[in-house]
Specification:
54% helix; elongated; three-stranded antiparallel beta sheet; 232 residues; single chain
Length: 232
């Protein structure tokens, strides 16, 4: 009798040992389902990323002829260099100095140089005010965090990139009556600039730069005029 009870007790203990691992396994959770708590370094990286996204400039305008004017300036610069350097070099290497008098050489070289340089200067004078892009950037040094500035990109006579940062509420003025630039519809810090008003994606900015009415106001006026015409 004692042997039978001992055998039953041993069998029950073995059953408990077999069930215990299964119970432990049922409590296990896959590693991919466990919620991970971000570390302070990760939180700092996330906050830095959000701040960087907020500081990213927003493109408000892109000049439709920006690439064309840039290409024209580069071609004009190339022709000016060829006119100034190429003609004297050709006259020297091909023996023109022996057949043409010195005064004639100077006249030819001067005429070609003035023509090449003059066209480059005229092109730069006309198209330097042409605005390639307008971007809204955050004012880091402003007291009010909501204050934002405008970054304007143009190209100088040598096709180099020129950036002008200004406040559209304070630094913009209308062109003066004595302005002789063919492309100029607003001025910043006394310098002329030109944009296509219909290409500005911000109505408020367009009003601040060139003084045009907002599109909603224009539509309302046109609608009112149409209603009056239908009434008459």
């Amino acid at each position: 009798m004692v042997r039978v009870s001992t055998f039953r007790l041993a069998s029950s203990l073995k059953g408990v040992k077999k069930i215990a691992p299964a119970a432990r396994c049922s409590l296990c959770v896959p590693a991919d389902r466990v919620a991970t708590i971000p570390t302070p370094l990760q939180l700092r990286a996330l906050s830095t990323t959000n701040e960087d996204k907020e500081k990213e400039p927003v493109v408000l305008y892109e000049g439709p002829f920006a690439s064309l004017t840039l290409r024209l300036k580069r071609v004009s610069l190339t022709s000016a260099v060829i006119g100034i350097v190429g003609l004297p070099a050709l006259s020297f290497f091909y023996g023109a100095a022996d057949s043409v008098p010195a005064t004639g050489q100077v006249a030819v070289i001067a005429t070609a140089g003035l023509t090449a340089v003059g066209s480059t200067v005229l092109l730069g004078y006309c198209f330097s005010p042409y605005v390639h892009t307008l971007e809204r950037v955050a004012a880091d040094s402003a007291q009010d965090k909501n204050d934002q500035l405008i970054r304007m990109v143009t190209r100088d006579i040598l096709a180099r990139k020129v950036e002008t940062i200004f406040d559209p509420t304070k630094d913009v003025a209308a062109p003066s009556s004595s302005n002789s630039r063919p492309f100029c519809n607003f001025m910043v810090h006394g310098l002329p600039f030109y944009i296509h008003p219909q290409m500005v994606h911000d109505d408020e900015l367009r009003v601040q730069l060139v003084g045009e009415e907002k599109q909603d106001e224009v539509d309302n006026k046109n609608k009112t005029k149409t209603d009056d015409d239908e009434f008459l």
